[in-house]
Backbone:
C-alpha cells in the first residue's frame, strides 16, 4: 500500500493562474481531508469529502477555492486566480471510518508546496 | 471555537535528558487529543492519542482536563526523536485542529 499520494509535490504558478492539486487516498479509503499550512503555522482544516459529497467545507475560503472527490479518480483541490497569499503547503489525508475500530485515523500525504510568483 | 496552543517553537535538549513538549487546548465539548510527528523528509504521522493511553517510542501524554493540557513527555530523549511535533484536537468524528508545532532537537 503506497499510502496517500499527492501530486505534484511542487507547483509554481503566477498570479492569476489556476492551481490544481491532486490527492489519491489510501486503497480502500473513502474519506478525504484537505489542510493548508502557511509558513510558521500549523495545519488548518479546509474541507472534508466523501466520494461525490462534500461533508464539511467550513475551512474553505469563500471564493476561488473548490474541491471535489469524484466516484472515480483522485480528489482535486482547485484554486482559481491564485494570489501570493495562497503560497503554502497543502496536505491531504484519508481515512476509512469502517475500519480501525471506529477510530477513523487520518493518514497524511507528503503535501504539495504551492508557490505563487 | 477550538484552539490548540504549543508555546514553544523549538525545544533543544541533550541525549538522555527528559523531554516535555507542551500543549494546551480550548474546546467547549469533550476533547479528543492527539500528537502527530513529522521526521525529516517524511510525512506527518500519528504518534499517539489520549484515548488509547499507550506509550509509543517511549513517549506518553496525559490529558489534564483541569489544566486543559496534553503535554508530551519522554524520560530520556534519543537523537532519533528529533522531529517536528504537532498537537491536535479533533472535533466531531473527523476534522483536526492543529497547533503550530514544536521542533525538537536532540543533540548527542
Residues:
Amino acid at each position: 500500500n503506497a499510502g496517500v499520494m499527492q501530486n505534484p509535490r511542487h507547483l509554481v504558478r503566477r498570479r492569476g493562474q489556476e492551481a490544481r492539486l491532486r490527492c489519491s487516498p489510501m486503497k480502500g479509503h473513502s474519506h478525504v481531508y484537505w489542510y493548508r499550512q502557511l509558513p510558521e503555522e500549523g495545519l488548518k482544516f479546509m474541507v472534508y469529502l466523501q466520494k461525490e459529497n462534500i461533508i464539511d467545507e467550513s475551512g474553505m475560503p469563500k471564493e476561488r477555492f473548490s474541491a471535489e472527490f469524484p466516484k472515480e479518480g483522485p480528489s482535486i483541490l482547485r484554486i482559481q486566480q491564485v494570489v501570493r497569499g495562497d503560497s503554502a503547503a497543502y496536505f491531504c489525508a484519508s481515512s476509512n471510518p469502517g475500519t480501525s475500530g471506529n477510530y477513523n485515523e487520518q493518514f497524511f500525504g507528503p503535501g504539495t508546496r504551492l508557490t505563487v510568483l | 471555537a477550538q484552539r490548540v496552543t504549543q508555546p514553544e517553537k523549538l525545544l533543544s535538549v541533550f541525549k538522555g535528558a527528559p523531554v516535555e513538549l507542551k500543549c494546551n487546548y480550548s474546546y467547549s465539548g469533550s476533547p479528543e487529543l492527539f500528537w502527530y510527528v513529522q521526521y525529516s523528509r517524511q510525512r506527518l504521522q500519528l504518534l499517539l492519542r489520549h484515548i488509547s493511553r499507550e506509550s509509543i517510542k517511549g513517549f506518553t501524554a496525559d490529558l489534564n482536563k483541569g489544566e486543559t493540557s496534553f503535554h508530551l513527555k519522554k524520560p530520556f530523549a534519543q537523537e532519533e526523536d528529533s522531529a517536528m511535533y504537532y498537537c491536535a484536537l479533533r472535533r466531531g468524528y473527523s476534522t483536526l485542529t492543529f497547533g503550530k508545532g514544536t521542533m525538537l532537537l536532540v543533540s548527542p
Q: What stands out?
A: The longest strand of chain B covers residues 83-90. The radius of gyration of chain B is 13 Å.
